[in-house]
Write the structure tokens for this entry.
Amino acid sequence: MRKTAALILGAALLALAGCAVRATPQDGRVHVVAGFYPLQFVAEEIGGDRVGVENLTRAGAEPHDLELQPSQLAALEDADLVLYLRGFQPAVDEGADLQDRARTFDVSKVATLHGADPHVWLDPLRLAAIADSVAQRLAAVDPAHAGEFATRVADLDGRLRALDREYTQGLSDCQRHDVVTSHEAFGYLTARYGLNQIPVTGLNPDEEPGPQQVRDVARVARERGVTTIFFEALVSPKLSQTVAREIGARAAVLDPIEGVEDGATYFSVMRTNLATLRDALGCR
């Protein structure tokens, strides 16, 4: 209800201000608005200094819970391109629906999703497919620099494929293959690299599991010799710590990369995740 009210208020403010005509960026760059960090990352990697990217989700915030402010609605109105993933951020979905569809790009259209799980960027090859389409959209907005976008996306594609090879090799010889997580956010990653995700809760990070559900996960983890229970960077570790204590394991962070802080990047966090998984799974 609060999200809808914010959208209505923002739309009214834009109309009163005469914002039906989009402003032209003063620096001549393509103005991109991204719903959350991985889409910001892709746009910046491909666009370079030809693109200015605004992330609607501030660093360290949970993107699922985003509520758009009037200034953010104005940014959507002024954007040359809006990047979002439908179903992941309901407020952004509503805001995007108010815009000209030619200026919005729902990246789920080029990355086949597993049911309702939105965390597609945790598979580097799926993110590469998204990047290819983003490059095409940027080229349509700024044809004069299409060649530059093509060169940069080719470089990004190469680095994502190299990362995929690092994961494939790094997780190819492990003593364990079960990844117990507090939140069901790692299905794409575990499916790509032959691992088995055992979530304590479902896709909603705010879901509270019942005592029996926690006991069942703890029992399975104990039977399978799990040594690490994972929690997310932006979510309380209490649930994972509870399960870990129950079976004599440890709790550790596995980051779904919904946002980054302190100079981290998609590549640095993915490589940290790989090192964490290798340690937890006893990989050689």
